[in-house]
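My current task is to audit a protein record that another person submitted. What it holds is a sequence and that sequence's fold in token form. Thanks in advance; the entry in question is below.
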Amino acid sequence: MSAALCQIDGLSVSYNTPAGVKHALKSVSLDIMAGEKLAIIGESGSGKSTLSLALIGLLPDEARTSGIITWPGLGHPPLPGRDIGFVFQDPGSSLNPVLTIGEQVGEGARRHLGLDARAARDKAIELLGRVHIPQPEQAVGAYPHQFSGGQKQRIAIAAAIAAGPSILIADEATSALDTIVQAEIAALLEELVRTGGMTLIFVTHDIGLAASLADRIAVFRNAELVECADAKTLIANPRASYTRDLLATYVDIDSPRLVGISDAA
């Protein structure tokens, strides 16, 4: 078995609100193994995105936290952009409309690898090719509005891996896309982590995509970790009733897709 890249022990996150204390995570303990593809699933508000933001150190200043996150597989706290690449949900808002694609994809290489402008441009062309953007030599000089939603997400992924991170976190990176493009992006993520030796943390509400992509699945509900198991084991023999409810929404277990999860699930 791989060694633990990250160990989360009793992590809690809460916020003071006019209505009282809101708990975003409640005493979550979870090991993330080096080289694995871990899916974190749950409905909106379950805590899955809060966990991904805690891992990269992007929680708001007003967040109250307790518990410990350690990184034995790295040997040091991760540096965002260098050790962890992050892909956000909406590629339209994660890309700057006034900067060229080459500038944005090459930024991480310039900042973390010390490449000059020419070398960073060459790196951006290479990365755009890796994420299957047509004619990458021309794409580096283009702007985000010239690309489709799926292409923008591919570009955002290229930017996230520019410095060769050990971990790639994709936080609802497919939810703003149509079903066919979702599958394409999931396949791209699998290809990149396999060829690049990265650990993938795939945050989603879609248990179908999680089942098709992940080695392990961690299920969250109401700020708590419900269960975590090998993907095949969890699909075949879920322990939690909530996970069974999620699985009951499958259309076809051999080609798992969700038809929808109600807020009361």
